[in-house]
Fold these 2 entries.
Entry 1:
Amino acid sequence: MGDGDKIRVLIVDDIAETRENIRKLLQFETNIEVVGTAKSGREAIQLSQDMTPDVVLMDINMPDMDGIAATEEIRKKAPSAQVIILSVQGDQNYMRRAMLVGARDFLTKPPMPDELTSAIRRAGAMAREEREKRAQAYVTPAGSTSPLLAGARMTHGKIIMVYSPKGGCGCTTLAVNLALALHNDETRAMLVDANMQFGDVAVFMNEQGKNTILDLAPRAEELDPDIVEEVMIRHAASGLHILAGPARPENAEKVTAAQFTKVLQYLRQLYAYVVVDTCSYLNDITLSVLDISDVIVLVTTQDIPSIKDGRLFLDLMMTLGIPLDKVAFVMNRYDKRIAITPEKVAENLKQQLVAVIPLDERVVIPSVNRGVPFVLDNKAQPAARGVFALAEALRVKLLRAEGEVAEKVTRW
């Protein structure tokens, strides 16, 4: 492995002995290179710009500026750098604050050697992925002399994948209500059913139309707004557009992953948010959605199989080279009587929890059976408030990601 392939690490700690111990620990790793050390948060911010590290190992307690404040500045000024927080305190509040400002991992000091090197490799892969994406985004269009024009091309609708590797977690209910929560006159949303065999999105909204994805997929190369408008089911109560799955399971294979990808890429030109409900099975269609989504709403519940499957899915994302910061982790059907708390699950999966949707069987089940989504029926009840909180968290996450790219383009 050449030097250019090594993961560049910056160590930040106000104690010289700690900096040296970590440096010695990493010197035997052939694919990791310590490019510098800093004894304060302010020095770390400067070195992160000068040395362009892939990974910053950040102590949380320092005299001039704590690690959380320094992390926030580094993520603004060197957005490709991935920060791993090191702290003697395994406090949930510290972890939550660190993740909110953009830290990618949180380890308790002193970390186990294998734990530290694994975290660095994960973060290094994310840094490489972010640099590649930014490099592609900043390519000036042919014939243009201004890189600012590239920024205009980046403004497009966002694809939101709603997914759980464990069936029965309420993904369709969540996708339907989330699309409605995001939809308004200024930022139109739409809902796509990516379950080609047994999709129920239209049924959940009490809408049955003759048109489905089968009417768009064969024309994926020649779509225009009129064709899309003709095929969409329009939800009478809200005006939300729905792209239904095939009416019969035997027609599922008539839609290829390549066609489905092209359809989604076109739809994002027409809508601010494209919410995609997917099945738990990772077939070609689901993997294609995973690949092009701007954010993946990962849904879990309070049972051990769901949590286990969530961990396996996150590991798979790393294997596929998909950045974990695309994940928006959600706990659905939260029952406070169960000892497995959202915080414990978030700690287990090492994912920031963006929303908790309370269990409300008296509202949710009747809404499904009536085909009237509960965010329309009663916005004040707990499940609806949880969905609206999720919608707002996703808006912030997507705007923040767009803002980081726009800021980089402007500086260029």
Entry 2:
Amino acid sequence: MPSPADRNPRSVLKRIAHRAMIDRGLDPDFSQAALAELAAIRGAAFKTSPPARDLRPLLWCSIDNDDSRDLDQLSVAEALPDGSVKLSVAIAEVALLVKQGSALDQHAQKNTTSVYTAGAIFPMLPEKLSTDLTSLGFEADRLAIVIEMVFSREGSLAKSDIFEAIVKNRAKLAYNSVAAWLEEGGPMPAAIGAVVGLEENLRLQYRTTQQLRALRHKRGALSLQTLEARPVFSGDDLHDLVADQSNGAKSLIEELMVAANGITARYLSSKKFPSIRRVVRTPNHWDRIVELAAERGSTLPKEPDGIALEQFLLAARKKDPAYFPDLSLCVIKLLGRGEYVVESPGGETPGHFGLAVKDYAHSTAPNRRFPDLLIQRLLKAAMAASAPPYSNDELSALAQHCTEQEDAAKKVERQLAKSAAAMLLAPRIGEKFDATVTGASEKGTWVRIFHPPVEGKLEKGFEGWKVGDRLRVQLAYTDVERGYVDFVRAD
């Protein structure tokens, strides 16, 4: 007979997540060899030759989720006399502690990412590393890779540099409270007021990144808003699933990361180094995106055009803000998945259609994404004028593997979101909901309801529907173990 702990929602979801990890070819547990290596690590990364710059006096801060402990980047701004602004991003030093080819590295390479599920978090690196020794925690002296960028008054990149430095996080901040303060005139978080000068520094970061964001969207970056379901627990009881909304603090960090990842890619190219790029190719299903726009009274060109699509999205959000997250999800699915590819010296990659950037190398989360750890090793070799630590063939194989494993991780996360939704919806069999078609293929038709924000399969009456169509559905079946939420046409 199962114990009470085995029956509570949190434990059930954790067990399901553990099994789903294995089913998808991911390792939920660290090997004994990896744990032995972990036990032998005595302290945070440190080096003396050549000496790193000491940037601890700067007003570095982190902005992340309220409960985040794996802090992988800090930021700071400086207004320069000519009106330009220097933005600096400090990235956690991971490569010194996680040696290439080690058991810890093998686990990270197997999974390629931390997996965040409703049941549990499965970190790419053990918590002692990801949330402590490599995390840029509050008031901790840490070695970091600093990406320094100077932007003109108009927002164009004037110059950049990459180097090693010692940094210290002066304030651990959270997205929602920072956004409420920056955007809505809410109370200033106490951690900001506790550091002299940090208020204006953050406002400068916000103003500058908003300018960068506006310029990028003029080039065709897409304004997309999705509803990621986040579980809300009361003790071990699942209380709700709520949509994780975008906000100004998240856009601040997003712009810093997009800019820093571009600098990283171009730096490696300038050193004649190969790199792994994150790309989203020109969409294969542009014709259906054109249909979606036409159904809403807008016209898009026959050939993919990011600027025209962005204009349609902005108009659609203004016209129907409640529906916009579902429209965004439809567009994202029709754009196609992102993937990792290798760019060889002198070569060229497709770029990232959704972000409207050509050069984009994931580099800002090396303690929770393996491609970023690869990039960090390449960066350190390039800075030291050493040979690349990976051959082009090795990088090509790793890029494909990272794409496959990231897809597997997302499927685990989606499955657990559905298992959590099935828990909440089980008492509501027979209820009717407004829904939007988010997937339509020979395998079936999927719809999303608004609360809880979750997708389910349309089991009956699914013929003829297209992505973006709206309909009324009735909840017919739930299965927590398999993450099934099934609907039928309400009429």
